[in-house]
Inverse folding.
């Protein structure tokens, strides 16, 4: 933790050598007072070394080297735990691929002044997506609608990956029980935050499709999200039904 810095931006990476330098530079330029933690899953393209080289010359940049690729969820949980150990008060999730614009970071931090969790949302008034084909837009919109209905969470963009948390709010999310590896990790944390009674707000962002490197979205990731969201929804509905039955017997 650098001086009086209270915020750390966590950037998980796997093969982001082409985009990571710009992501770090953008964060440091947009909000010079924050720290950056790169969580690298042993990227074979040298991303981890690029991050380490920057960290060796910039005390506000840190690197958590992991021994293997084990999913977005595991990388973020490791980053959250690192932030908790190092005494930060605020953590931010941000992708390294350029889709999350560093210049929008101040608006997330401003919104966090009145909330426990802030989601940078593409689907609230003022939010937008650039350079996505219709199929990808439909998949994202449909996935969010499915999650909202099945899980009963009042969020327009539960799959959003650009978000900020108060560190003390993370203590109420039972991070040690998180098993989601892929992008459904974002939905998992959103539903946990809502169920824990935290104040979750959405602030508009412009999401820009990556221009360098390869997308990490695969069919397996989509299937994991569908299976897990369905299972969570069924568990929640079964629990509510049992509670109603017990209540009717009294």
């Amino acid at each position: 933790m650098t001086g009086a810095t209270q915020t750390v931006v966590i950037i998980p990476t796997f093969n982001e050598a082409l985009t990571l330098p710009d992501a770090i530079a953008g964060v440091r330029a947009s909000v010079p007072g924050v720290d950056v933690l790169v969580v690298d899953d042993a990227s074979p393209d040298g991303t981890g070394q690029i991050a380490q080289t920057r960290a060796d010359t910039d005390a506000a940049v840190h690197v958590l080297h992991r021994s293997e690729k084990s999913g977005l969820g595991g990388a973020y949980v490791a980053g959250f735990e690192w932030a908790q150990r190092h005494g930060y008060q605020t953590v931010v999730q941000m992708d390294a691929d350029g889709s999350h614009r560093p210049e929008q970071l101040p608006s997330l931090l401003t919104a966090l002044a009145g909330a426990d969790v802030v989601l940078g949302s593409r689907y609230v008034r003022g939010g937008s997506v650039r350079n996505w084909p219709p199929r990808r837009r439909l998949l994202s919109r449909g996935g969010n609608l499915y999650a909202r209905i099945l899980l009963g969470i009042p969020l327009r963009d539960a799959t959003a990956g650009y978000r900020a948390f108060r560190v003390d709010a993370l203590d109420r999310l039972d991070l040690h029980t998180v098993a989601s590896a892929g992008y459904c990790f974002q939905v998992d944390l959103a539903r946990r935050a809502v169920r824990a009674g935290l104040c979750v707000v959405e602030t508009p962002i412009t999401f820009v499709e990556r221009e360098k490197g390869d997308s990490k979205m695969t069919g397996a990731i989509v299937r994991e999200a569908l299976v897990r969201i369905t299972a969570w929804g069924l568990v929640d509905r079964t629990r509510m039904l049992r509670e109603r039955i017990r209540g009717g017997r009294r």
